[in-house]
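Consider the following input, taken from an annotated entry for Noncanonical pyrimidine nucleotidase, YjjG family (Bizionia argentinensis JUB59).
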Amino acid sequence: MKLNGITDVFFDLDHTLWDFDKNSALTFEKIFKTHNIEVDIIGFLKIYEPINLRYWKLYRDDQIDKDSLRYRRLKDSFEAMDAAITDDLIYKLADDYVLSLSTFNFLFDGTLELLDYLKPNYRLHIITNGFQESQHKKLEQSKILDYFHTVTNSELAGVKKPNPIIFDYALNMATTKKAKSIMIGDNMEADILGALSYGIDAICFNYHGVKIEDNIKQVTSLIDLKSYL
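Applying the prediction step yields:
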């Protein structure tokens, strides 16, 4: 069902347009090879990914800072694997990971087709909890930066999704109104419930196939957003 009156479409970046899991896996392969760390990458990622999500939730909730997030997610993962990695090396890996992550820029299938489809009729924007320096590089290196009128990150806004202040910041930057806006993202708490609580419509990019409430708009592929916009 087409949505009427929408002029501004706000996207999350990681896990929504930018294929974070794929790019992250390639980054770990690269930095582990550089530092001669011999661990099973598949086994590592299986342990790391839920740990990373847990620490990102703590970061969203302001229970840890950025440096703690970067260090603890690696420390806990290596400990879970009984891998003897020194703290000095973990700090080096944490830095190298952030620096190298934007050198891999796989997008989800349909991203460019969708953005080309939307751009003539909508103003497009980004709202991300990711770090300012890395998110700009991701947009630039994946060649999608020019699609977006504004890019709001949590470091600029001073708070993280789902805090309503970041949505308010983004809409003010975009000079638009709630009734004319919609948020698209993968994270139910940060993107969808955050937007709905703030008062703008939302569509969940449910590529992970989790069970969500029937009253929440959702798509399982980006191209399916054409049925709404």
